[in-house]
Fold ATP synthase epsilon chain.
Amino acid sequence: MADTLQFDLVAPERRVASERAIQVVIPGFEGDLTALPKHAPMITTLRPGVLEVFTEKGSQKYLVTGGFAEITSDRATVLAERSHAIEEVTQEMIEEMIAAARAAHREAKAEIVDASAKMLADMVAMGTRMGFEPKN
C-alpha cells in the first residue's frame, strides 16, 4: 500500500470530496503544485482550474474557481469558492462563470481606485495619530 494523505475538498454549500489520496494536483495561484504524503506545510491560494486527485482506485478531476489550500505532511484540505466533479460541469455553468468573471473585471477598476483611496486615507490617519504630519 502506497503512502497516502487525507484529501478534503469543501465548497460553501457542501463537502465535495473526502478520501485518502496518493497525490493531489492543485491549481495554485502561481502555478500548479502537487501535494504528496510528507509534504512540507504550506498554504496557497487557488486560481480557477482543474484539481486532480489520485487514489489507489484511479483519479478524479474537479473544477475549482478559487479559494485556498492547506497542505501538511498528512493532509491536503482545499476550501474552494465553487467546486464540482468534472462530470457535473455543463456548458451553461462555464458560460455563467465566464460572464461573472467578465462583470467582475469591469467592476474591479472602480473598486481598485476606491480601495487605493481608502488605503491612502488610512495611511494619512495612521501617521497623524502617531504624531506625524503626513505630506501630500
Summary: The chain has one helix and ten strands. Strands lie at 5-11, 14-21, 23-28, 31-35, 42-46, 49-55, 58-64, 67-71, 75-80, 83-85. Helices lie at 91-129. The longest strand covers residues 14-21.
